[in-house]
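quick one, 361 residues, struct below
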Amino acid sequence: MKYFARLLAASLLFSTAAVAQAFLPQQPEPSGPVHIPDAPQLPYHFGTQITGANGEQFGNVSAVALRPNGNLLVFNRNPAIMMVEYDPTGTKLLRVFNPNIAMNPHALRVDPHGNIWVSDSFLNVIFKLNPNGDVIRTFGVRGENAAWDDSKWNGMFNQPLDIAWDKDDNFYVVQSHGGTSPPADCTFCATYDLPATRNAKVRGVFVHPPAIPGSDPRVMKFDKNGNLLASASLAHADGLLPVIHSVVVAPNGEVWVGDRASTKIVVFDKDLKRVREIQVGNLTCGFYVDATGQLWMSTGRHGMVLKMGWDGKVQGWFGKHGDVRDSHDVGEGHYMAVSKDQKIIFMSDSVLAKVHRIEHN
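---
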């Protein structure tokens, strides 16, 4: 029975290189040598990698987060162990919960009140969970999207990727993964439809929604009840679909948005009026603000974590890009989290299916 259950899950969630993505082009990510920031290498080293649970290996690991008590949460693309909780060191398994909650896990964040939020970038929904992991609110319409209307929010997302909060409990969402399927080596990843099944429904869910997936790159601001307060488009003038991958609120209330392939941060004020841009030179993949207010960023396939100031300057870096699952290579540093004492950095790897445990020297 376990084999057939996994086979069914894989039939719904496995990606293939043969899928044709008619809704491209996507903005290409930079190629060539990885950019090493003009900053010192941080005094960290790779520790023991964190293992999966219940005899299962992680699927590609989308995100990590820390609960208020320091416990580590892991969100990965193996349906059987999709959400896992560990102790603050990442060495002791505490529980597995919400198996198969998402079709394509993406963001995992913990709000200031300890609630857990996750996004499904293919089903276009964001779930708000209480600290126990029970779903208490859903934002978006499962499996559907629609064209954007500036006069009234249609209640739908188009590839929601990340969430952040301000001091008044307003929350911000960024969307657009550029319309892409996951890479061909992405274990358990979901994909959009094959041409033969276009416009069909699977279990009542659109597998090819009406609007082009990822075609509305945007940052949105909501009040705590989910009412839209403001939005701003991040579309590119050349028509290429960007990956608007992460969002964070700065101590001064500014909203920082990562435009990943452009290797830049777009800064907005609290009303989502564009203020400035910061060119980083590395893929702006996942922001994290630690307990001291320090800004960190993971750099996707550039394989590094960057320690940053709120002036946008890189203060230090650590990492090792590569493609070997059993080494300390980083396939894609998707999102990250840092312990309260900054002694441990956890980085999710959405290509090599790892949680990297990086320890201070």
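Residues 2-11+44-360 form a domain with the Neuraminidase fold (CATH 2.120.10.30).
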